[in-house]
Each structure stands twice: as C-alpha cells, then as structure tokens.
C-alpha cells in the first residue's frame, strides 16, 4: 500500500501534490472531517435552508443553529484562525486552505463552522489587535458562536477602495467618541443576532500623515443614533440573513475603551484584516467553482439531453470547454495555495510578510474572482435555460458571489495597480542586468572573433 494511501480519497483529490507533505496528521484529520461535514450535512440540507430562510429572512434558520451546535461539538469551529494565535485550533494558513476550499462547495457551509465572512476576518482582527479586556468582551462571544459581528469600512460618498478617503468622523469628547456619517455594506442590522460593528472612520483629519488619520472602533448594534436605512440587494439577492446594509450615524457615542489598538491605527488594522479575508474569499470560490464544473460534467453526460442525437459532452467544442475550465481552476488553486504558504513561511518576518504576502494575496484576489465568474458562466451555458434558474441549480448564486467578490475587500483594479506598480519598481535592477548581458556579449564576440554591435540600452 502506498505511504500516501490515507491521502487518496476525494477529500484530498484536488490538493496540489506539493501541499500534501506539509499536512500534519491533525490537519489531515480535520480536512477529512470537513469534507464529510460538507458532503453529508450541508449540501443535502440546501433546500431546507432555503425554505427556512423564506419563512423568516432576517434570522439564522433553525437548521443553521442546529448545524452550528453540532459542528462546535465535533471540534470544527474557528479552524481558520492561524496556529500562531493562542486562541487558534492549531491549523496553518495552508492547512486551513484545504478546508476552506471544501467549505466553498456550499455557499453557507463556512457559517456552520464559524469560519464565514465577515466573522473570520473580524475574529482574526480582534485576536491580533485587541487587549485582553477587549478580547474577553468582544472576541470570546464570536469564537463561542454566541454573537455575530459586522465590518464597516465602505462609504457611499467617497472612493473607499483607497482607505485614506474614508471620511466618517470619529470625534473625541471626554471619555467618549462621537461618530457621525454614512456607511454601506456592513451586515444587516435587521438580523438581531448581530451584536456589534467593527468600524473604520476618520478621527484626526488634520494629521499630515494620511495613513494616521483613521481609527477603528467597536460600535454595538443597538447604540442610539445608529440607524439602518435599508438593505441593499446585490445582483438581485438580499443575501439574507447577513445582508448588505446602508446606515446613518448621528451623534453615536461609544466609550473610549472601544477604540482598537489606539487612535490613528485604523489604516494598519484594515490592512491586517483584509489580507486573510481576501484569501478566504478566494479559497471558497475555488470550492464553488469545482462544484460548478461537476454540475457541468454531469449535464454533459446526462442521456436525457441529446441535441442532434449526441450527448452535450460529445461535441468537441464542449470537451475543449471543460478542459479549459479544468486548466484554469487548477492554475488558480496553485496561486491561491501559494499565497497561504507564503503567509506561513514569512509568519515571523514582518518585512517579507508585508512584501511577499501582499503580492501573493493580490495575485490571488485579481485572478480568482474574475476567472471563477467566467467559468461558472460557462457551466451555466452548458446547462441551457435551467442553468440560470435557482430552482434547478445553485450556479446563479455561485456566479453572483464570484461577481461581487471582485469588489469585496478591494476592487481587482486596485490590486492590479499594486502588483503592476511593484513590478515597475524593478526597472533599474532589470536594466542593469541587461546592460551586463550586453557587455558580456561584446566580450564573447571579441573572444570568438565575431563582429557584433551592442549598445548599453539594447536588450538581448
């Protein structure tokens, strides 16, 4: 029997071979448990979940509460929190990546194990930046699953993709801070299980350093003056029970102890939170994409559907279409898993983590949502008219999720600009190297008695 026989099952079928030796026994056990959980507990309950949401849109459905209690009992809660946090269950970023992709096969499976957005990002933020008193009050309930939270950064009146533009005012007044302004896309306040918002705002607008003008604070959902205007449908979906709310804050008062890390630290906190959140989105999208391809292959070989007397999968164009999907999905997986490995590899080197980690995360965030959107679109096409109805497949909602993730946690245009800008910084070093090529070329030409004309600015 192969030494890797225990890694040959379907839970490990799509994990890149270079990842497998890095998985510790406890991680292998968790990955298998997560696979069994999603396959046996989540996907078969999708219709029940939808039916219960229809009857009470803005509350966690009873089946979700049941599954969360069961998952917690089985030790599947909070798997995303990296092993270097004392509160962590013990997985590395790379080990959790294998779990997160599996969880992505069902849109809401991550919530059953308390590893969903925005909870995972918020928990990591609180674990990383809060003091012990704040952790006890705000972090513990999230990790135990007795409360939920929202993250509020985006605003309707500025280009919040550049966090220095965030303009909502947070003004010191004695032992309190007073907040005034508007926010959009924080989770829906109509869900009464939502306990608090982690909110970024401008607390020092005159600071000459634009990256030190902002603070991050905790705002309880029931604070007077904090009002939800409406929930914003996204691509026709309410995304209940989490939703995407629009808010006004009028003289909202919070105690000074609700400031995280200290005044002026908002930008640093935002960067620290968004990195892992971006990767989690990408990992879930890989799982959604894998499931969409499975549905496409199933349809291609369904004997009930034979245009012009042939299976859909017997047409050469469709064989090539499926091949292209597989190539693109496997390529995305390599880039995304590489990003998680980068976070682990440089976990104790802040300088390299900031540069290499930022680049690898940006690459995944640029590539994955747009490519998954394209692949799911092709899968829907293979299903024909039934591919664009929620009544026949989950693909429309999977596609919608991929589409809005191109904007969530920063638009892909901003990440492309960042990656491209960093590449341009290499120009001087690259030019010097090519000058050396030319100098060596001239010396070798002389050595061999060949005539060659090179100029320092030429490239070979």
From TrEMBL:
Per UniProt, the keywords (alphabetical) are:
FAD, Flavoprotein, Oxidoreductase
GO molecular function annotations of the record: acyl-CoA dehydrogenase activity; flavin adenine dinucleotide binding
Cite the Acyl-CoA dehydrogenase/oxidase C-terminal domain residue spans from the record: 264-421
Q: What biological-process GO terms show up in the record?
A: fatty acid beta-oxidation using acyl-CoA dehydrogenase
Which residues belong to any copy of the Acyl-CoA dehydrogenase/oxidase N-terminal domain? Answer: 32-145
Q: Which GO terms describe its cellular component?
A: cytoplasm
Every copy of the Acyl-CoA oxidase/dehydrogenase middle domain together lies at 150-252
InterPro entries (alphabetical): Acyl-CoA_dehydrogenase, Acyl-CoA_Oxase/DH_mid-dom, Acyl-CoA_Oxase/DH_mid-dom_sf, AcylCo_DH-like_C, AcylCo_DH/oxidase_C, AcylCoA_DH/ox_N, AcylCoA_DH/ox_N_sf, AcylCoA_DH/oxidase_NM_dom_sf
Which cofactor(s) are needed, names only?
Answer: FAD
Q: What is this protein called?
A: Acyl-CoA dehydrogenase
What is the scientific name of the source organism?
Answer: Clonostachys solani
């Amino acid at each position: 029997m192969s030494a890797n026989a225990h890694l040959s099952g379907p839970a490990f079928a799509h994990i890149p071979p270079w990842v497998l030796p890095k998985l510790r026994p406890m991680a292998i056990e968790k990955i298998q448990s997560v696979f069994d959980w999603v396959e046996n507990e989540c996907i078969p309950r999708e219709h029940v979940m939808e039916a219960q949401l229809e009857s009470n849109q803005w509350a966690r459905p009873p089946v979700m509460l049941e599954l969360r209690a069961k998952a917690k009992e089985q030790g599947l809660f909070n798997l995303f929190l990296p092993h270097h946090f004392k509160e962590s269950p013990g997985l590395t970023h790379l080990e959790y990546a294998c779990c997160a992709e599996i969880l992505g096969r069902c849109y809401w499976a991550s919530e059953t194990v308390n590893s969903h957005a925005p909870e995972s990002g918020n928990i990591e933020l609180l674990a990383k930046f809060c003091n012990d008193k704040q952790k006890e009050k705000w972090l513990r309930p999230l990790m135990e699953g007795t409360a939920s939270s929202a993250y509020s950064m985006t605003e309707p009146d500025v280009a919040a993709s550049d966090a220095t533009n965030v303009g909502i005012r947070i003004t010191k007044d004695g032992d309190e801070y007073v907040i005034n302004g508007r926010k959009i896309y924080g989770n829906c306040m109509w869900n009464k299980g939502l306990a608090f918002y982690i909110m970024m705002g401008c607390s020092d607008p005159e600071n000459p350093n634009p990256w030190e003008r902002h603070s991050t604070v905790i705002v309880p959902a029931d604070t007077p003056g904090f009002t939800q205007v409406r929930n914003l449908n996204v691509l026709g979906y309410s995304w209940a029970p989490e939703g995407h709310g629009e808010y006004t804050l009028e003289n909202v008062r919070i105690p000074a102890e609700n400031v995280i890390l200290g005044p002026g630290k908002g930008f640093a906190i935002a960067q620290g939170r968004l990195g892992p959140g971006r990767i989690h989105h990408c990992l879930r999208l890989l799982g959604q994409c894998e499931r969409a391809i499975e549905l496409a292959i199933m349809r291609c070989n369904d004997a009930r559907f034979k245009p012009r007397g042939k299976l859909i999968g017997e047409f050469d164009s469709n064989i090539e279409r499926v091949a292209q999907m597989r190539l693109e999905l496997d390529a995305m997986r390599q880039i995304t898993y590489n990003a998680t490995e980068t976070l682990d590899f440089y976990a104790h080197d802040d300088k390299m983590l900031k540069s290499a980690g930022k680049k690898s995360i940006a690459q995944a965030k640029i590539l994955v949502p747009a490519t998954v959107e394209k692949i799911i679109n092709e899968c829907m096409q293979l299903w024909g008219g039934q591919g664009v109805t929620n009544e026949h497949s989950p693909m429309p909602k999977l596609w919608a999720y991929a589409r809005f993730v191109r904007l969530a946690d920063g638009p892909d245009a901003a990440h492309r600009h960042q990656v491209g800008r960093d590449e341009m910084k290499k120009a001087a070093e690259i030019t010097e190297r090519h000058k050396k090529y030319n100098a060596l070329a001239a010396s070798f030409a002389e050595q061999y008695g060949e005539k060659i004309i090179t100029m320092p600015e030429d490239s070979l």
